[in-house]
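Now for today's protein.

===
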Amino acid sequence: GPLLVGADFELPALGEMVLGDPAAVAVLPVFLTMIEMAVSAQRTRCILLHPDLTTVVRWIALGTSFLDSATALTTAFRAFSANPLSDSSFPIVGTSPRVLDTTLPVARAVGVNVLDLTTFEHSPVTPSPTAVRHAEWFRSGDTFAALEAIDVSRRWGAVMDPDLAARAAGVGVLGLEDVPDAARAAAIAVRQLAEHELTDDLDEYGEGLLTAITVPSGDDLQDVVRALWAVQDKGFDNQAPHVALAALERAASNPRQAHAWADSHIKSAPSAARRPVNWPDEDARHHAAGLLAAFLDGVADDKLATAFVLARDLGTGLAAQQIT
């Protein structure tokens, strides 16, 4: 598990070990990808080379800090192995360059990843999008905040695409504003957290995710709509009005997306069983009704029956005679 014993193994010291050395910073995404590969179902073992055992153990402590806490606690390693290529019971193994001096070609043949912690030479590994993002957080911000976001990113990555989970954690935990496709990532995360009933995460990080959803990123209405009905159907009444407004704002300004939403609404759910959205106050309901009127204004006559079912489920109190 995470080896945090003694000051040298605590986060500030581990951060300094890497961040003070440009070569270590450069190799960090590769190292984190090797750790991901070592604990994945396919398990490609990771061998770390250095003459000093303490250095090896510090890098193992660092690497396991980037796993979610449950995985970190169950990840076995051997700090020094006399037979690293055949020592297959441990996903992460340390050894001395004297033991393994013909490193990379041999390692490639055996199917393990090797990182030399003296020269930073390594097996040919392409950094994963999550490792690149996590390394960037660690390098550019508060290391404790970065590791909280990384833990969340790993946990969410178990129930959704890991790269998407990392982008959503960047938005929801760190409040980053330069995340590509942020609204879509946040909407998918809100939906998955609701569907998997990860209530604590929605309560703790929902505000950042909901803020990101309010700024459209491309053609993302369907993702926002799916998030809306996930939170609504699972009873997350505090979040549902925010997501509903984000969806209505998109639909009111984009007739094509509005048509698609009206069209898909009946097909996507057993509408009779739906509770209407529970608006927090009359101002919010009134604002939603105005957006809904603009949205319905753009819907073709043959789609109006469907659109009125949607209007009922949104619970804005908008009556048929209010539509021009």
About this structure: The chain has a mean pLDDT of 88. DSSP finds 15 helices and four strands in the chain. The first strand starts at residue 46 and ends at 49.
